[in-house]
UniProtKB/TrEMBL annotation:
Residues 222-417 form the Fe-containing alcohol dehydrogenase-like C-terminal domain. GO terms for molecular function: alcohol dehydrogenase (NAD+) activity; metal ion binding. PANTHER family: ALCOHOL DEHYDROGENASE, HYDROXYACID-OXOACID TRANSHYDROGENASE, MITOCHONDRIAL. This is Iron-containing alcohol dehydrogenase. Residues 27-207 form the Alcohol dehydrogenase iron-type/glycerol dehydrogenase GldA domain. Coiled coil: none annotated. SUPFAM superfamilies: Dehydroquinate synthase-like (SSF56796). The keyword GTP-binding does not apply. InterPro entries: ADH_Fe/GldA, ADH_Fe_C, Alcohol_dehydrogenase_Fe. The keyword Cell division does not apply. It comes from Natrialba taiwanensis DSM 12281.
Length: 417
């Protein structure tokens, strides 16, 4: 439905149907030096001792960890700097021991998605009264851990990348085979936890900290975050609220990321990028649902059994996925709204213009453009990747009318090869 408003702007939206929007937002602090107020947020939460959870790189980088330490002041209980991209359940148990050993009553998670996810698992473990053996057994059998209704340790998130775990009600977690021969876990297991209680109590978006992140890490996370905005627009469960935040966020990201690609590293550029990330994330992780869709399903399929990084996987396949979706007859992919958000709404062929603009953002970040150039699947594995993609829960949010086959998804992978 296209209807002009009083300013002559074409409002491009699906036919209005009743919707329910529920989103539990953390307190958001934004701006240079905002981590100086970590102690104030702890006081608001009536907490007195915070354990910093991060990876070893963040923990040993003074430009990142020192402002956090200063912001916590006397409320700093200790630093647990052992998180890794594997997001191990064993690491979370170690973090739980540190939490209890330092008598901390809050967690400050600093870094990328790995540290934020492990912090959420630590919070859940702290509230779980079962034995470790019972918790591991549940994860081994179900791939998840039941989130207690109360007793979770509040988390203050300080993201240094752009992937989005800071505004999420979920966390990934993996477990390695047991080394004690118990047989409790006999193979590599991947899974996750979810629940509205996992949303951080506060999130601190400090451009000065994000600017310290190595470019190769930041670029991949930026593409992951950028794709969240794209997918939120065409998701089957999009709402006028997420339309507004995602559209504004995409516009900021398109401008900021291309400036970043031109070599602009000034504080204003990082503020623009971070503003865009906050907006595209806002409202997409809701109780029982998310607006993430087919690009993220491909990302999961590609990284499920390969070492390719999630943002890199997105960078390679996103233009090809969009071309496929836009070409499907009867699919409501909301191309016009995407074109408006990306600044190409006046183009005579908006679908092609959107793909070109997404490709330009990807290229500005100097990310890989072909599957053959990354540590991903070979062509003989494409059918398995396509099957995993089709079975991924994110496909439930695919644009209305999209019902792809395994062969069609294989063709997308072949185009990306």
């Amino acid at each position: 439905m296209t209807a002009p408003d009083s300013n002559g702007f074409a409002q491009r939206a699906r036919d209005r149907t009743p919707f329910r929007f529920e989103f539990t937002s953390p307190t958001i602090r934004f701006g240079r030096g905002c981590v100086a107020d970590l102690d104030a947020e702890l006081e608001r939460l009536d907490r007195e001792r915070a354990l910093v959870v991060c990876g070893s790189t963040v923990g040993s980088t003074p430009t990142v960890i020192d402002p956090v330490r200063t912001g916590l002041g006397t409320e700093l209980a200790g630093v647990f700097d052992e998180t890794t991209p594997k997001k191990r359940l064993g690491t979370a148990f170690d973090g739980l021991d540190c939490l209890r050993g330092t008598d901390a009553d809050a967690i400050v998670a600093v870094g990328g998605g790995s540290s934020l996810d492990v912090a959420k698992v630590i919070s859940v473990l702290a509230a779980d009264e079962r034995s470790r053996a019972d918790i591991v057994a549940e994860f081994s059998e179900t791939g998840t851990i039941t989130v207690p209704e109360s007793g979770l340790v509040p988390i203050l998130a300080v993201p240094t990348t752009l992937a989005g775990a800071d505004l999420s009600q979920a966390a990934g977690v993996t477990a390695a085979p047991a080394s004690d021969g118990s047989g409790r876990i006999d193979e590599e297991l991947g899974g996750g936890i979810g629940g509205r209680e996992l949303m951080p109590a506060a999130a601190f978006y400090d451009p000065e900290l994000v600017a310290t992140t190595p470019e190769f890490v930041l670029a991949g996370s930026a593409m992951n975050g950028f794709d969240k905005g794209l997918e939120t627009i065409y998701a089957a469960n999009a709402t006028p609220i997420t339309d507004a935040t995602a559209s504004r966020g995409l516009a900021a990201l398109e401008s900021g990321l291309r400036a970043y690609g031109r070599g602009e590293r000034d504080p204003e550029t990082f503020e623009t990028i971070l503003e865009g990330i906050v907006l595209v994330q806002y409202g997409i992780s809701r109780p029982g649902e998310t607006t993430l869709s087919i690009i993220h399903a491909f990302g999961h399929g590609l990284t499920r059994t390969n070492d390719v990084q999630q943002g890199t996987a997105h960078a390679v396949v996103a233009p090809h996925v969009l071309e496929f979706v836009f070409a499907q007859e009867g699919v409501d992919a909301r191309v016009d709204l995407l074109a408006d958000a990306l600044g190409v709404g006046a183009n005579a062929e908006p679908a092609a213009a959107v793909v070109d603009r997404v490709t330009a953002v990807r290229d500005a970040l100097s990310l890989p453009t072909r599957l053959r150039d990354v540590d991903g699947p070979e062509p003989d594995e494409f059918s398995a990747v396509a099957e995993a993609t089709l079975a991924d829960r994110m496909m439930a949010n695919a644009p209305p009318g999209l019902d792809p086959s395994v062969d069609e998804l294989v063709a997308v992978l072949e185009a990306a090869w």
